[in-house]
Amino acid sequence: MSETSTRTTYWLSRDDRIVHVGSTWDQFARDNGGHDAIGAVVLGRSLAEFISGTPTRMWIDTILSLARLRGEPIERPYRCDTPTLRRHMRMTVTAEEGGVLRLDHVVLATEPRPLPVEVVT
Q1: Which of 1, 28, 92, 98 has a beta carbon 3.0–4.6 Å from 109's, enabling a disulfide?
Q2: How many CB atoms are located within 10 Å of the residue 48 CB?
Q3: What are phi and psi of 32, to 5 degrees?
């Protein structure tokens, strides 16, 4: 498993719209094939537009609500895989003034994913 320290940060409004992205956002998006996810494209849009699956959406909603309710940082490990990599990550959600949330995502480690076996008939 390789160790990395990539940090990506963005801020959400009270209604969970992306209002600002950190300086590493665009490079991380490009490095991961997210050319349609650069800052200029995502600003003003709801975070929910970028989350697939009901369980994941519910997990994120719960963490965002908890951070606002407690007023203290909430930190959770998670995986965010690509087709070729397992990415072990940590998310920290910090409540700021006016209901704004700061979300920091750090890549802790990566490891190659086995390539799928292609069946030829």
Answers
A1: 1
A2: 11
A3: -110, 25
Q: What is the pTM of this model?
A: 0.85
Phi/psi of residue 46, nearest 5 degrees: -70, 140
Instruction: Name residue, tokens 């697939």.
Output: 52
Please report which helix (H) or strand (E) contains residue 76, including its range: strand 74-79
The four Cα atoms 29, 31, 35, 40 give a dihedral, to 10 degrees, of 40
Report the run of H or E that residue 68 belongs to, with start and end: helix 54-70
Per-residue pLDDT tens digits for 23-48? 999 988 888 888 888 899 999 999 99
End-to-end CA distance of the chain: 35
- Tell me if residue 57 falls in helix, strand or coil: helix
Residues 6+ apart with CB under 8 A from 63: 74, 76, 91, 93
Question: Residue 90 — φ and ψ, nearest 5°?
Answer: -135, 135
Closest CA to 30 of 41, 20, 44, 19: 41
